[in-house]
From TrEMBL:
It holds the Pfam family Peripla_BP_3. It comes from the Bacteria. The keyword Lipid biosynthesis does not apply. InterPro entries: HTH_LacI (IPR000843), LacI/GalR-like_sensor (IPR046335), Lambda_DNA-bd_dom_sf (IPR010982), Peripla_BP_I (IPR028082). The lineage of its organism: Bacteria, Bacillati, Actinomycetota, Actinomycetes, Micromonosporales. GO terms for molecular function: DNA binding. Residues 2-58 form the HTH lacI-type domain. This is LacI family DNA-binding transcriptional regulator. Keywords: DNA-binding, Transcription, Transcription regulation.
Length: 331
């Protein structure tokens, strides 16, 4: 049976470095390359850490919780990969929870907060939760970190404002002037503010935020509302990429050709968008990096340190140009 000393010899590192990787401690400085080399050595030697002994020694369960809204949302695929891979590197497991079960006094909340269930909790967008639920969670000593821009507690987020800017600037460069931002809720306001800033800098009047929610139906409803505005749009920025699917469906039902009569850009990106017809132009947000940064910051909180939260600046949102947007003819 392989030992930690065997791992150290194979990876060419000290025993202290191996111990730090296995126990998920952060006081031993090492590069990500070194950490990966240790993990590779563990896998090649078939090393299996004694999680029960480790949990007793560190007074930890070896599990963190991740709570998401709409678990079937493909936008979360890369986020989940980042969370699971980073937790696994520290020898921990992830309990995935559905926000639909997060009601005040529910058995799910009680089990989540019971002693010995999890060591910390990651929550995506706590503004979508009932205030009583959040108060109940924060009344317990378990560290909680939000994977979104928060106001008064630890968080790590993506640059939603920049995402709105990039999508809008792209359409402005295609000579569109009647651009509408639709989808999402008031909680996703940073993307709208990015849109509004770009419109104002171009000397244009931004349309009001058509906050119709998330998902395909929300996108369809948003487009129909946009078409009722005094000046119908020639282009739309869609808050969530799955809502963009609804926009395309509604446009087809209404006899509107995309992109010839209406250009569409969605925020977030998933593989499905490449196979839509037309393929959807999107702003790819760093969801994988959000998952990794969130786990690292949560472990800092669990260790009694304030953590390294804030907006992820590298990589920044990236425009993926496909077929759903084109230059406005005759402009």
């Amino acid at each position: 049976m392989a030992t930690q000393r065997d791992i150290a010899r194979t990876a060419g590192v000290s025993l202290a470095v191996v111990s730090a990787v296995i126990n998920g401690t952060t006081h031993t400085r090492m590069s990500e390359t070194t950490r990966a080399r240790v993990i590779q050595a563990m896998e090649s030697l078939g090393y299996q850490p004694n999680h029960a002994a480790r949990s007793l020694r560190l007074n930890r369960t070896g599990m963190i919780a991740l709570i998401l809204h709409k678990l079937d949302n493909p936008v979360y695929t890369q986020l989940l990969r980042g969370v699971y891979e980073t937790a696994a590197e520290r020898g921990d497991a992830v309990l995935l929870g559905d926000a639909e079960a997060m009601r005040s006094g529910s058995q799910f909340v009680a089990r989540l907060l019971s002693h010995g269930t999890v060591d910390g909790i990651l929550i995506r967008d706590d503004r979508l939760y009932d205030d009583e639920v959040m108060a109940e969670l924060r009344s317990h000593p378990k560290p909680i970190l939000t994977l979104d821009n928060a106001r008064d507690h630890p968080w790590v987020g993506i640059d939603d404002h920049r995402g709105g800017e990039i999508a809008t600037r792209f359409l402005l460069n295609l000579r569109h002037r009647r651009i509408v931002f639709l989808g999402g809720t008031e909680a996703s306001r940073q993307r709208y503010l990015g849109y509004r800033q770009e419109m104002q800098q171009a000397g244009l009047e931004p349309a009001p935020h058509l906050a119709t929610g998330f998902g395909e139906q929300a996108g369809a409803d948003g487009l129909r509302q946009a078409l009722q505005l005094p000046a119908a749009p020639t282009a739309v920025v869609v808050n969530n990429i799955m809502s963009a699917v609804g926009v395309l469906a509604a446009a087809r039902d209404l006899g509107i050709a995309v992109p010839d009569q209406l250009s569409v850009v969605g925020i977030h990106d998933v593989g499905l968008m490449e196979h839509m017809r037309p393929a959807v132009t999107a702003v790819r947000m760093p969801m994988y990096e959000l998952g990794r940064a969130g786990v690292h910051a949560l472990y800092e909180l669990m260790a009694g340190r304030p953590g390294t939260g804030g907006v992820i600046a590298d990589p920044e949102p990236e425009l993926v140009v496909r077929d759903s947007a084109t230059a406005l003819s005759g402009a």
